[in-house]
Amino acid sequence: MFVQRFSATRRGARLARRLATHRLDRWHLPYGSRASDTVTLVVAELAANAVLHGRVPGRDFELRLTYDRSAGLVRVEVSDTHPARPQPPEAAPEPAPEPAADAEGGRGLLLVAAVADRWGVAERTGPGKTVWAECPVHDSGDACPVRR
């Protein structure tokens, strides 16, 4: 298990992504493997959301990675102190409008849903929430292919 708190800044999100990639490599999910790239993408998107949408001035966000080698699963959890909760695309009351082709944002959770086996939002002790995603990985370090 890897747990670390980061400042709720772009720099903190970048550091979370880099340290997650390093930890995955130490868990024998090497840099550049499909497993590492998939989990790193999920960490990057959830950390960016914590910084951009979950930021509360003066509060950090927390990254927790858990690797269950026997199950072939990496669980990513990002906790922040903002009370707003993202809605999974399938739970939205109406289809969300597609982001404009040249938009710089608006696709993060769609990416997470595409590459993770499953994801969701959970309560946490104290204020805020935890957004989590589970990424299946093979022994070879390759992630399962993107679901279609």
Entry summary:
This protein has helices at 10-26, 34-52, 108-115, and strands at 2-7, 60-68, 73-80, 118-123, 129-136.
Features:
5 strands, globular, about 150 residues, Heat Shock Protein 90, 5-stranded antiparallel β-sheet, about 25% strand, alpha+beta
Fold and architecture overview:
By secondary structure, the chain is α+β, with helices and mostly antiparallel strands. The chain has one domain: Heat Shock Protein 90 (2-Layer Sandwich), CATH 3.30.565. 30% of the residues lie in helices and 25% in strands. The chain contains three helices and five strands; from the N terminus they run βααββαββ. Strand 4 and strand 5 form a beta hairpin. Helix 1 runs antiparallel to helix 2. The C terminus is likely disordered. Keywords: Kinase, Serine/threonine-protein kinase, Transferase. It comes from Streptomyces fradiae ATCC 10745 = DSM 40063. This is Regulatory protein. InterPro entries: Anti-sigma-factor_SerPK, HATPase_C_sf, HATPase_dom.
Helix content: 25-40%
Strand order of the largest sheet: 1-2-3-5-4
Q: What is the strand tally?
A: 5
Q: Rg from C-alpha positions?
A: 15 Å
Q: What does the secondary structure layout of this molecule look like, with pairings?
A:
Blueprint lengths: L1 E6 L2 H17 L7 H19 L7 E9 L4 E8 L27 H8 L2 E6 L5 E8 L12
Antiparallel strand pairs: 1-2, 2-3, 3-5, 4-5
